[in-house]
Amino acid sequence: MSNKAKSVSELMNLTPEGRYDYMVEQVKVEKTIWTLQDQDGCVMLTTEDEDCIPMWPSEETAALWAVDEWKDCEPLAIPLSEFQERWVSGMEDDDLFIAVFPVQEDLGVVVPPYEVNERLTPKSQAKH
Asked: What top-level branch of life does the organism fall under (predicted)?
């Protein structure tokens, strides 16, 4: 069962680290991670140092980003198993990072995909 205790406005006011923690917990429960796509593929963001794919904990939070230049984008659900089996290694191969739960005023924490994957993997299943 999803923990909807926090409203979207409360989530938007969390620190970048708080949004990262929330996203990890939600993805563990829902077994889905969200990004945005348009006819050309996934949305890409560029920081000063990295190219990133933004990811969110829910369809609702991803849809909040789909405004202005992103208004033609649609939320894309990625099953957790697919994210772990294909996206993590594919993003690593392409030298892409994850912008974790960005909001309009704040890109959020930018981390390599393996770091998100490590936080999503139960300790007993983690590879040593």
From this structure: Bacteria
